[in-house]
């Protein structure tokens, strides 16, 4: 198709502001999907997405409207998946910014607007859910005008649920978003913005062709990895795969390849073809770096190979997933996986359990630390148990984040108090009409377990939170180890700031006492920093009353039987093993 008739755009918004519902209405109005095949959140194809009501993976779809070809990419809204959003923006010329008329601008709205402005996209502001009784159109319109500096007339007021105002959105996309500016006669260059592994067809790439074209049967080459393959099939998504002859200049489409692994075709790489080979790659994406790590272990060690295969398959369709094998004396063999955030970790755990039918034990999530030794050597450790001997360590650096919280003004005090409790520092406070934007910095490790839940609690559910990694800072950090019946349990070790070590040690030991079952002998639960114990709880033993058969006679008979029992308990303690249940390893997640 002629480039002047192509429009590439994506929908960006905070979580639950109606992106996927708007995508449904756009497909309905343009006749892309017949009424019979229509269902709500059509582009959220994963079972988990439909169940949780959130978008996890970006999804492209091609529509036709007024002689124009519209290529839409639906994006996730949660902060953990902002990497998916940044990839979508690179493949587009415009963005539809959706804001909920009842909730107004939230933290992720701001973050996505900054990403779109940085990518130099045309932004079309859309006010959604105007049919709700709680909708406050004048207030939220004023917030959008404040944020974008646009006019009142530029804001489209719609209800994606009822379809009111949706044709006007399509008209605005055709009129305001610029067509692609590629050159059909130049060597072929196409940007991979997503890839996944299909069990039956191999690696499938979602690409945006910038110059030239890719035809069915072309020999393709990746400029970054140098991998070669064949384009077995090319076409567009509407939203099912629709094979075609070629993906032309400026178009978004898919390529079915004969590649065996998505590592050959990384997201952000440039695809070229042998008949018209390009030399200069397109500017790709940042290499995404996970900053939450957790150990995944199968309940039965026989399932280790199944777990390894499952994680490898999952990493083919999720380029942000990084993993390495891990061994624990208590839990056996497993894998340590890196995630972009806690929701990402939760989704991956659920997918492994459902799609691959695995029973898993997941250890407490931690972040990575940079350790500098006395001899100048630098290490990057992903779990507290990897920390070398303290006498060899010169300094430990931990990651800090820059965060933004948007809340109604009544909750400012409670939020600042929460930030201070997490060793954070408030940097700035600004106002968007009736809302406050609090900028702060804090150590990532302190926000990992329950910060988001606590924020929702203190703000009655109105607070929204967005963050990005800032830098690694030298802090006074110590490793807290936990002992069960005198034996250290590596998988429970955590890194904490010295000032918080005592309190956290006591809390975790108390929680372990609730989780670990009583034995026939007394079990000590201890927390220690190096050789110094800082907290202790005792699990009392089950005790049989051995004196029931005695009646009358001298008291020494009673003492003799009790002494014999005590001797047996002592022996049992020496040889007995404590079975630690899997809940003990996630005790940090239930800190409160």
Keywords:
single chain, 592 residues, alpha+beta, Rossmann fold, Elongation Factor Tu (Ef-tu), domain 3, Alpha-Beta Plaits, six-stranded mixed beta sheet, six-stranded antiparallel β-barrel, 13 helices, 30 strands, 25% helix
Question: How would you summarize the topology of this molecule?
Answer:
Blueprint: E1 6-13, H1 19-29, H2 47-52, E2 59-65, E3 68-74, H3 82-90, E4 94-100, H4 107-118, E5 122-128, H5 137-148, E6 156-157, H6 166-176, E7 189-198, E8 202-211, E9 214-215, E10 219-222, E11 228-237, E12 241-244, E13 246-247, E14 252-257, E15 270-273, E16 292-298, H7 304-317, E17 322-328, E18 332-339, H8 342-355, E19 360-362, E20 369-373, E21 378-381, E22 393-408, H9 412-421, E23 425-432, E24 435-443, H10 444-447, H11 451-458, E25 464-475, E26 477-484, E27 487-488, E28 494-497, H12 498-515, E29 523-529, E30 532-539, H13 555-575
Parallel strand pairs: 1-3, 1-4, 4-5, 5-6
Antiparallel strand pairs: 2-3, 7-8, 7-15, 8-14, 9-13, 10-11, 10-15, 11-12, 11-14, 16-18, 16-19, 17-18, 20-21, 20-22, 22-24, 22-25, 23-24, 26-27, 26-28, 26-29, 29-30
């Amino acid at each position: 198709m002629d480039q002047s008739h192509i429009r590439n755009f994506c929908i960006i918004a905070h979580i639950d502001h109606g992106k996927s519902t708007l995508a449904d209405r756009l497909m309905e109005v343009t006749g892309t999907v017949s009424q019979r095949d229509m269902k709500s959140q059509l582009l959220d194809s994963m079972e988990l997405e439909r169940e949780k009501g959130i978008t996890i993976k970006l999804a492209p779809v091609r529509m036709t409207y007024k002689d124009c070809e519209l290529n839409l990419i639906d994006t996730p809204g949660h902060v953990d998946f902002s990497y998916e959003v940044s990839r979508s923006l690179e493949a587009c010329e415009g963005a539809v910014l959706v804001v909920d008329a009842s909730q107004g601008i939230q933290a992720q709205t701001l973050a996505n607007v900054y990403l779109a402005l940085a990518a130099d996209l045309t932004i079309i502001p859309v006010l959604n859910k105007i049919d709700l009784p709680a909708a406050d159109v004048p207030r939220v319109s004023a917030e959008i005008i404040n944020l974008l500096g646009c006019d009142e007339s530029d804001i489209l007021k719609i209800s994606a649920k009822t379809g009111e105002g949706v044709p006007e959105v399509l008209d605005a996309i055709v009129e305001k978003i610029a067509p692609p500016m590629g050159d059909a006669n130049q060597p072929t260059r196409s940007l991979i913005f997503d890839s996944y592994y299909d069990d039956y067809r191999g690696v499938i790439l979602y690409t945006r062709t910038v110059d030239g074209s890719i035809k069915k049967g072309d020999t393709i080459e990746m400029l970054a990895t140098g991998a070669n393959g064949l384009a077995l099939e090319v076409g567009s998504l509407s939203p099912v795969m629709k094979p075609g002859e070629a993906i032309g200049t400026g178009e978004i489409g898919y390529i079915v390849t004969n590649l065996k692994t998505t590592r050959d075709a990384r997201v952000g790489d440039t695809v070229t073809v042998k008949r018209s080979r390009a030399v200069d790659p397109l500017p790709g994406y940042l290499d995404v770096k996970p900053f939450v790590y957790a150990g995944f272990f199968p309940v039965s060690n026989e399932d280790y190979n199944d777990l390894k295969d499952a994680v490898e398959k999952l990493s083919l369709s999720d380029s942000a997933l990084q993993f390495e094998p891990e061994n624990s004396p208590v839990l056996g063999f497993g894998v340590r996986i890196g995630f972009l955030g806690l929701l990402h970790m939760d989704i991956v755990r659920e997918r492994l359990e459902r799609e691959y039918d695995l029973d898993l034990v997941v250890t407490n999530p931690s972040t990575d630390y940079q350790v500098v030794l006395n001899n100048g050597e630098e290490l990057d450790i992903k779990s507290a148990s990897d920390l070398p001997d303290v006498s060899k360590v010169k300094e430990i650096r931990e990651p800090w984040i820059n965060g933004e919280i948007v809340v109604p003004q009544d909750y400012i005090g409670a939020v600042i108090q929460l930030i201070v409790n997490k060793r954070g520092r408030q940097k700035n406070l600004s106002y968007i009409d009736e809302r406050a934007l609090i900028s702060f910095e804090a150590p990532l490790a302190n926000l990992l377990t329950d910060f988001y839940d606590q924020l929702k609690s203190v703000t009655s559910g109105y607070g929204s939170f967005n963050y990005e990694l800032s830098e690694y800072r030298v802090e006074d950090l110590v490793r807290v180890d936990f002992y069960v019946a005198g034996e250290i349990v590596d998988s429970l070790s955590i890194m904490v700031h010295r000032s918080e070590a005592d309190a956290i040690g006591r809390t975790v030991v108390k929680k372990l006492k609730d989780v670990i079952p009583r034995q026939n002998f007394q079990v000590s639960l201890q927390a220690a920093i190096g050789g110094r114990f800082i907290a202790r709880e005792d699990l009392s033993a089950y005790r049989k009353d051995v004196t029931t058969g005695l009646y009358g006679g001298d008291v020494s008979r009673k003492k003799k039987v009790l002494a014999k029992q005590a001797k047996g308990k002592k022996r049992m303690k020496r040889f007995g093993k404590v079975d630690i249940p899997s809940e003990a390893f996630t005790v940090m997640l239930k800190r409160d």
